[in-house]
Amino acid sequence: MLPSVAIIGRPNVGKSTLFNRLVGKKIALVDDQPGVTRDRREGDAKLFDLKFRIVDTAGYEDEDAATLPGRMRQQTEAALAGAAVALFVIDGRAGVTPLDEEIARWLRSSDKPVILVINKVEGKQAEDTIYDAFSLGLGEGVAISAEHGQGMADLFEALMPYV
Ligand code: GDP
Ligand code: MG
């Protein structure tokens, strides 16, 4: 059985885009509208010579789910429970949001290894976020562009100890 990697994060940060890139197919629906990933999707992922299961979660589509034990949060917890490591994705263009901080707090209190992923870093708009993301207490983070395929070697290095 392949080790499993869960993609966690608030709506619209690019979780499904990253999932599709790692699976190499457009399985997950990518949309500008939050709430498009209704349930969790799994696929066989490949990143250079790493092979693993990847789970895309609807996660925190319902903003209330961050503070209430809602269905979406339960689903995220279920995905996390079976995972060797979590990829916690934030939006480098939007900056660190209160919901990101809430999810980070929750992830820090779980004993799962977490890799912070700062997405949408193509161009210069994300430089402040890369700096601010330190405040999430999850380390430096890996800067990527899921859409353009940037940062995949850094993501590989971050995942390698876990999968
Ligand atoms: P999810 O809700 O977290 O699953 O996010 P999606 O994967 O559905 O993406 C939300 C929006 O962000 C879509 O319009 C994507 O095209 C866009 N997006 C995803 N990755 C990137 C990226 O690396 N750069 C930019 N500029 N946009 C991205
Ligand atoms: Mg999605």
TrEMBL record:
Superkingdom field: Bacteria
Residues reported to bind GTP 1: 9-16, 56-60, 119-122
Chain ranges of the EngA-type G domain: 3-163
Family according to the record: Belongs to the TRAFAC class TrmE-Era-EngA-EngB-Septin-like GTPase superfamily. EngA (Der) GTPase family.
Function: GTPase that plays an essential role in the late steps of ribosome biogenesis.
Quaternary data: Associates with the 50S ribosomal subunit.
Record-given protein name: GTPase Der
Organism: Sphingorhabdus buctiana
Phylogenetic classification of the source organism: Bacteria, Pseudomonadati, Pseudomonadota, Alphaproteobacteria, Sphingomonadales
Full-protein interval shown: 1 to 163 of 457
